[in-house]
Amino acid sequence: MYQEVILDHYKHPHGRGLRDGDAEVHHVNPTCGDEITLRVRYDGDTIEDVSYEGQGCSISQASASVLNELLVGKELPEARRIQETFLELMQSKGQLEPDDSMEDLLEDAVAFAGVSKYPARVKCALLSWMAWKDATSKAFSGADASAQEPGEADSAKEKTT
Amino acid sequence: MTQLPGLLDTEAIRKDFPILDRLVHDGQKVVYLDNAATSQKPAQVLDALADYYEKHNANVHRGVHVLAEEATALYEGARDKVAAFINAPSRDEVIFTKNASESLNLVANMLGWADEPYRVERDTEIVITEMEHHSNIVPWQLLSQRTGAKLKWFGLTDEGRLDMAGIEELITERTKVVALTLVSNIMGTFNPVEEIVRRAQEVGALVVVDASQAAPHMVLDVQALQADFVAFTGHKMCGPTGIGVLWGRQELLNDLPPFLGGGEMIETVTMHSSTYAPAPHKFEAGTPPIAQAVGLGAAVDYLSAIGMDRIHQHEQALTEYAVRKLQEIPDLRIIGPATAEDRGATISFTLGDIHPHDVGQVLDEQGIAVRVGHHCARPVCLRYGIPATTRASFYLYSTPAEVDALADGLEHVRNFFA
User: Fold this and answer.
1) Residue that finishes a domain, picked among B285, B305, B325
2) How far is CA B6 from CA B189, B220, B325, in A?
């Protein structure tokens, strides 16, 4: 399960550290104590940044790094497709053999296929992805009052009030 | 092979545990070092379970037919065995529950609904410790929230022991109950229960001891302990899951109200009110875990035949060896007592910056089973500023060779993530 790609992201994470965002969430994995604080920043539908800080095992940390590399710069519908495909892969219990189109879509995230065989570790791999999904819905609902910088979400909220 | 004074004949003992021959991951023999989570079961216990279901199964205390009488005799016989195992003055002081958590919740609820002088309420205090298992924290938090009683606790020293300095201010005239673990499930620490019982008795507070990590490993004598309640679970001491024990002093069990109502715990029932059976049945509503109690009885027989003092000696020798071996590993930090003194065979540690889940996973690839995480004792991790630990815990069938396998495995982990 510890593919070189995963170890590499773990030892040299992409985009780590918290930067300004439209919404922030804090997610924990109670079974092992992995924690992540994650912020998203949008320009319209484009993901400008996903920044994060956290502690946890190599799987959870590497997964956050892959997420950053994969999602920043993407349009939201495309990002959702990636997130859903990654979720499907992680819930496959090792039964899903990624095909070419999945590999093209998930890039480095395909390396986590082996993790799906270990039920105890699937949550580690999904932690940052669930946090991203949550932060995104917060950003677009404008529910996050503590956002660091008023972005699209807040201005959208202002328009409706 | 490493020979240490005080070791049991593990070669013979291991033959009783079929699972220890289990091969994992391409033919490696499992090295089971997760005994603080649950122990393995000897054939004697497995046979007792099968025998009960194959020959004697019936509900207890109800039928007049032969199977019902046999099942009742076996169930009540298990109570006798457990009573003798913990040196209880009376068999009627032994209540069967489903686990130690239920035992502790039962006490908390008895005290919440009790009359004076036991009643926990506003302006009274509950004292616990920072090294409790969640099962001895959360029931008291619930009781505190529901009654308005204040929850206080003993802090920990840097060496993983209870900070006894403020005991007089902590346990006061307002204290109704002091609940603490005899042996820490995460650090292995033995706690000075005697001193705490003495102080509690001075102020008239009840003492509840969580003996889940003690009963499997050493002589447990509830009379010597002088506590008012003692809780433990069967599955950590070679018994099946689904069976726990609450021992309580007779006069308390007579005075305190029942918690769960139902069949078995009553004397007479009308549509308006009921009267209750005497303890222990008063606290055993519904069909109890019969086969599991029988299995626990068999486990108690098994452990007693070997001798709890000899099991304790074996684990002491092994702990001394393991502490020494682990401390030779660079970057390894033991969380808890760093010597083998006044501690049990449960050792938690961190290994540099490598997350315990990664440690556990790479050890598993080598067939070594340890526990990783916060071990249901998250406040301990917070206290020492760590997210989690790796925990190796030994039992009567553990060997020095398994300690060596762990040490070698950890070296491999270090190289893997270097």
Assistant:
1) B305
2) 21, 20, 18
Minimal C-alpha gap between B233 and chain A (Å): 22
Sort out which chain B residues have CB atoms less than 8 A from A58's CB and list them: 355, 358, 417
Positions of B marked active-site = 376
Residue A52 bridge partners (DSSP): A16, A38
Is B133 domain-assigned?
Answer: yes
- Count A/B contacts: CB-CB distance under 8 Å: 39
Q: Are residues B100 and B150 in the same domain?
A: yes
The domain limits of chain A are 4-141
Residues from chain A that touch B381, judged by Cβ atoms under 8 A, are: 33
Task: Tell me whether residue B239 is in a domain.
Answer: yes
Contact A6, A112 (CB under 8 A): yes
Residues of A in contact with B374 (CB under 8 A): 33
B92 and B27, same domain (yes or no): no
Closest residue in B to A28 (Cα–Cα): B387
Q: Which of A1, A33, A121 sits opposite B388 (nearest CB)?
A: A33
Same-domain check for residues B254 and B317: no
Interface predicted TM-score (ipTM) over 0.90: no
| Closest partner CB to B355 (pick from A2, A56, A118) | A56
Find the domain containing B343 and state its range.
10-32+308-417
Measured between CA atoms, how close is B376 to chain A, in angstroms?
9
Digit-by-digit pLDDT tens for chain B (418 residues) are: 677 889 999 999 999 999 999 999 989 999 999 999 999 999 999 999 999 999 999 999 888 899 999 999 999 999 999 999 999 999 999 999 999 999 999 999 999 999 999 999 999 999 999 999 999 999 999 999 999 999 999 999 999 999 999 999 999 999 999 999 999 999 999 999 999 999 999 999 999 999 999 999 999 999 999 999 999 999 999 999 999 999 999 999 999 999 999 998 999 999 999 999 999 999 999 999 999 999 999 999 999 999 999 999 999 999 999 999 999 999 999 999 999 999 999 999 999 999 999 999 999 999 999 999 888 998 999 999 998 999 999 999 999 999 999 999 999 999 999 8
Q: What is the pLDDT of residues A81-118, one digit of tens each?
A: 999 999 999 999 988 888 999 999 999 999 999 999 98
Judge if B344 and B385 occupy the same domain.
yes
Q: Which of B258, B278, B305 is the last residue of a domain?
A: B305
Strand partners, B162: B156
Which residues does chain B have within 8 Å of residue A118's beta carbon, measured at their own beta carbons? 361
CATH no. for A4-141: 3.90.1010.10
> Any bridge partners for residue A51, and if so which?
A39
Interface list for chain B against chain A, based on CB atoms closer than 8 Å? 355-358, 361-362, 372-374, 378, 381, 387-388, 416-417
Out of A33, A55, A57, closest to residue B358 by CB: A57
Residues B270 and B212 in one domain: yes
Please give, rounded to a whole number of angstroms, the shortest distance from the CA of A78 to a CA of chain B.
Answer: 32
- B1 within a domain of the structure (yes/no): no
Element (H, E) at B403: helix B400-417
Instruction: Tell whether B232 is covered by a domain.
Output: yes
- Shared domain for B143 and B108, answered yes or no, is yes
Nearest-by-CA chain A residue for B374:
A32
Question: What contacts 24+ positions apart, CB below 8 Å, involve B332-337?
Answer: B332/B410, B335/B160, B335/B186, B335/B187, B335/B380, B335/B384, B335/B386, B335/B389, B336/B159, B336/B160, B336/B184, B336/B186, B336/B187, B336/B188, B336/B189, B337/B159, B337/B160, B337/B161, B337/B187, B337/B188, B337/B189
If one counts the domains in chain B, the total is 2
* pTM to 2 decimal places: 0.90
